[in-house]
Amino acid sequence: MVGISLSDVVVRYPVYSSGRQRSILSATANRVSFGRVAQDVGRIPTVTALSGISLELTEGMRLALIGRNGSGKTTFLKMCAGLVLPNEGTIQINGTRAAIINPSAGLDPDKTGRENIEYIGRLLGVSRSERKLLVDDVADFTELGDFLNFPIRTYSSGMTVRLMFALATSIERDILIVDEIIGAGDALFMEKAAKRVRSMFSRAKILILATHSGEVAAQLCTSALWLNSGKAMMAGTPEEVWDAYVHQRPPLGAVA
Amino acid sequence: MGTTAVAFRDLGGSLARLPLAFWLAWDDIHGKYRRTVLGPLWITIGQAAVICGFAVVFSGLFGADPATYLLYLAAGFPIWAMISQYFVDMPAAFVNTRGMIESYELPWLLQIWRRALGYVLIFVHHIAILFVAMLILGVQPTPNMLLAVPALFIVTLAGVGFGLTVAVLGARFRDLQHALGVAASFLMLFSPVLWRTEQLLTNQWVYQFNPLYYFLRLLRDPLLQLSTPVEIWIGAGAGAVALFVLGFVTFWVSRRNLYHWM
To answer: Among A27, A51, A205, B203, fewest CB within 10 Å belongs to which?
Structure first.
């Protein structure tokens, strides 16, 4: 059974502000002097990115994450992708995942679009015959045409996003995790992406999407979660959560 | 899922995908020589040039027989090139593959196997020179040379353990890669790659207390058709297992913070 279950999750991460704090020489000096030398190295501040989040995501749910910059949306996505592990609380992830968090990060800029598709297909265990279909499918969706034969470094950011999105949605995965990128595409792409995500969900999966657009949330998602400074402010339908968020008005008896 | 479950699942998943790691390693090498006519043959050519150059100068310097010295270098140099990669390249293993780790649901340890297998592939390209040299000099291969295969396995296992440790620490401490680079050039002088142990009349400790010497010998002796003392096999094997455990425990303990460090 595909699902993600979070209970009282707290995520903290260290923030390194000076180069010294990343130096093994300074760290050693700090240790051998019992903390007298390089004192800043001994005290590395941590940031609490998420605190006390509990949530149950089951098959067929499409969740929009709403919140200001730095509210913990990306950390939430990274946790659901299995990259970040909670410091407190538990997370249970069942199902295969695809994450579009940093669209160009997983692509090789020197390889052509086609080679990248082949490469990633192979990486994700797609068989040789299916990889042919994969290339066709991605070519069809992205409408990149001849650009597919050019190295990725010649692509515009919108084209890269299109390619990554097509790839992530072509290879069947149970859970799709998307950071605020769909809003960045042009209007035509938006519409196409929405269609594709909906067709994907006819096969009952989970989508988690971070967005700054109430329209995207309403179009693609079935529920929404408003995060503020790492805490859950409100959960509900995308429309009501978006409405409360833009008016900065948490409902009575809100979780926070 | 706690860190322990994640770490062990990663280990199992990455071992199950060793063929993929091998293919990635192969692709990395091809990628590097993508825009060249000779392709990965450059690896062999480059090494051959270095070995011949050293053979000419150093056999004169040491008054050694050029043919024997050439074979000695052709066996030792590729091994050293492989060992030094664990110092120079491995500390960046996680940092440099952050994008791939972030984008695809793959075991993180796959990035370590991928690099280690890449070093083995380059070693194979390099060691071809030894066989060419043997052919030219009319040295017959012996069955004893096959012991190089288990020796290569032990050296790689030790390397992976060491490499995993420094890959984790290298993500946390960004100057580790530079420090290990300096260490590697020092250790090359302290290891009998260019010189022979019997030529060193004083300060024998430089190799006797140098663990790399034993791994170097383990792999080089069979290639030179010499027999390695059993103690070296046992010592290197035990050391390799210990290093592997150390590497995995480092990964396991640091897994929670490793992503933030990258």
So the answer is: B203
pLDDT digits (tens, 9 = 90+) for B54-81: 888 888 888 888 888 889 999 999 999 9
Q: How many residues are there in chain B?
A: 262
What lies within 8 Å, CB to CB, of B4 at 6+ separation is: B252
Asked whether the beta carbons of B183 and B246 are under 8 A apart, the reply is: no
What's the CA dihedral at B158, B161, B162, B165 to 10 degrees? 180
Return phi, psi of residue A89, to 5°: 80, 180
Kind and range of the H or E element at A8? strand A3-14
For B105, the closest of A78, A91, A97 (CB atoms) is A97
Tokens of B57: 């100068």
B62 touches chain A (CB under 8 A): no
Sorted by where each starts, the structural domains of chain A and their CATH numbers stand as 1-96+173-256 (3.40.50.300), 108-172 (no CATH)
Give the pLDDT confidence score for residue B94 in this predicted structure: 92
Q: Which two tokens stand for residue B69?
A: 């010295």
Reported as a single tens digit per residue, the pLDDT across A126-154 is: 888 888 888 888 888 888 888 888 998 88
- Nearest by CB to residue A14, choosing from B102, B173, B257, is B257
CB pairs under 8 A between A and B: 87
Based on the number of CB atoms within 10 Å of its own CB, is A240 exposed (0-12), middle (13-18) or buried (19 or more)?
middle
Q: Report the residue of chain A nearest B10, measured CA to CA.
A: A82
Spell out which chain A residues touch chain B, with contact meaning CB-CB distance below 8 angstroms: 13-14, 19, 22-25, 27, 78, 81-85, 87, 90-93, 96-102, 104-108, 110-111, 119-120, 122-125, 164, 173
Q: What is the DSSP string of A34-74?
A: TTSSSHHHH---EEEEEEEEEEEEETT-EEEEE--TTSSHH
Respond yes or no on whether ipTM tops 0.85: no
Rounded distance between C-alpha atoms, residue A43 and residue A81, angstroms? 29
Domain interval for residue B226? 3-261
The 10s digit of each residue's pLDDT in B222-260 is 999 998 899 999 999 999 999 999 999 999 998 888 888
What total number of domains does chain B contain? 1
Place of tokens 């792999």: B219
